[in-house]
Predict the structure of feruloyl esterase.
Amino acid sequence: MHTGIFLGTAASWIATVAAASVNLHRKATAATGTAGCGMTHWFNGITQYYGLESGGVDRSYSIHVPSDYNETKPYPLVFGFHGSSSIGLFFEADTGLSESKYSADKIMLYPNGLGGAWAGANYSEASVPEDLGFVSDLLAEVRANYCIDDSRIYATGMSIGGGFVDTIACSEVGGEFAAFAAGSGSFYTDDSGVSGCTPVRSPMPMLEIHGGSDPDVHYEGGPGEGGMEPAIPDWLSWWAQRNNCPNQTMENLYNGDVQHYVWECNGVGGVLQHWKVDDMGHCWASTTLDFSEIAAGQGPTPIDASTIVMNFFDQFTKP
Ligand SMILES: *[C@@H]1O[C@H](CO)[C@@H](O)[C@H](O)[C@H]1NC(C)=O
Ligand SMILES: *[C@@H]1O[C@H](CO)[C@@H](O)[C@H](O)[C@H]1NC(C)=O
Ligand SMILES: *[C@@H]1O[C@H](CO)[C@@H](O)[C@H](O)[C@H]1NC(C)=O
């Protein structure tokens, strides 16, 4: 349940006033957009922080709309889920996903997990139904307040946030999304084989980027910080079956350090993709040094996850 009550900082109080004035500025709803089309927003281009009650619990998120936001034009919406012991604002800063080179024409939404994590790990504060309910409530909130292209809603995330992206893809609310992408994902809720997940649609576009030298979420799987994790090749093979992708090709890049796997699913190429970076640790891949790479004690990587993920999303529209 969402209340539309905005809690927290002075910035969000200003946003509350802005939101309250929104109905006064309501114009005709664009043909293909959501109910929020026609609502005026202030401080576009500046990330804003909001509270949202979900399942009786106070939750929060931040949102970034393009600086030249056009209130009658339906925009793609991208959810970005942070890793453990983090918040959405850190994920936003680390990935750079609110920069116009990635999202000049998209609305970015960064939800905050309870206790700095997402459902699925044995240390998670929220249950899977609670966090999936939060996703549903966020969708309702954003659709009601912003002009969203309902056929172009996406989710990406890092580490446990990447694992939660997979949890969404395997759930009913996952049917609302056009494509998913995980970086260094810990797939706690999808570790039991092809039947461990029943997406509401097939194929469900999925991309994963993982370090072959990840010391936290091992490429080979096994016990992770929050429970058992599948080997990445096994997890990919399950998605290949769910998505009906019999054909796979692999391209060696950057002197063999990077392997790009592409599956053809139901005759459509690229619906399932994987990038393995052999000497990469647990981080968000970036060609310019980001905080997660510093934390992982490594330098920049030859590939840029934010570019790859946004280009992947651009290829898919929800049928
Ligand atoms: C805003 O978007 C609408 C719908 O796509 C379009 O018709 C209009 O020209 C746009 N306005 C501006 C100022 O770009
Ligand atoms: C969570 O799972 C991991 C790996 O299976 C295990 O080592 C750890 O003790 C578990 N933690 C809790 C709190 O159950
Ligand atoms: C994909 O695999 C099928 C079955 O193995 C084969 O018949 C088909 O020719 C393959 N397609 C491509 C494009 O390789």
Notes: Residues 1-31 have pLDDT under 50 and may be disordered.
